[in-house]
């Protein structure tokens, strides 16, 4: 007489499969039974009050606020061009290598270190000179141009 081909784990899997099948059929029958008593469309509508909270009551039309279309800003506002006086800054030369023709200026207003190249100089500069300059954006960040010493 041969041993049964069904092992314990096979029996358990089959039991679980049958159990899931019965649960699925019960849920299906329950949905069919409740199909006639579904909520109406008006019961499913949700409203949002002035504070952004959901409510089941519609908002009061007397509390309605009128907003002009011109006052709605969708994008960031354009920046106004700075005046020419704001473009000229002052600072102190913290480092300048004459053989390599570059250096750095510490901006007095922002305390930012700004790169300067000999091409942006109007007159020769040295370390610790007080200078006035304009800032332009270069490939790697801000660059000082039109640099001249201030007395």
UniProtKB/TrEMBL annotation:
Entry GO terms, CC: cytosol
InterPro entries membership: CSD (IPR011129), CSP_DNA-bd (IPR002059), NA-bd_OB-fold (IPR012340)
Domain of life per record: Bacteria
Record SMART domains: CSP
Domain CSD positions: 88-149
Disordered: annotated span: 1-42
Transmembrane regions: none
MF annotations from Gene Ontology: nucleic acid binding
Bias type Basic and acidic residues, positions: 23-33
Protein name in UniProt: Cold shock-like protein CspG
Lineage: Bacteria, Pseudomonadati, Bacteroidota, Cytophagia, Cytophagales
């Amino acid at each position: 007489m041969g041993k049964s081909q069904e092992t314990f784990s096979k029996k358990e899997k089959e039991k679980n499969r049958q159990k899931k099948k019965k649960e699925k059929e019960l849920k299906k029958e329950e949905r069919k039974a409740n199909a006639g008593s579904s909520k109406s469309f008006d019961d499913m509508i949700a409203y949002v009050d002035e504070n952004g909270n959901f409510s089941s009551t519609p908002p009061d039309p007397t509390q309605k606020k009128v907003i002009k279309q011109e006052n709605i800003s969708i994008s960031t506002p354009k920046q106004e061009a700075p005046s020419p006086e704001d473009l000229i800054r002052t600072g102190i030369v913290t480092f300048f290598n004459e053989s390599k023709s570059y250096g750095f200026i510490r901006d007095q207003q922002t305390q930012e270190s700004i790169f300067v190249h000999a091409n942006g100089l109007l007159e020769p500069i040295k370390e610790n000179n007080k200078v006035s300059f304009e800032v332009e954006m270069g490939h790697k960040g801000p660059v000082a141009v039109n640099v001249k010493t201030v007395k």
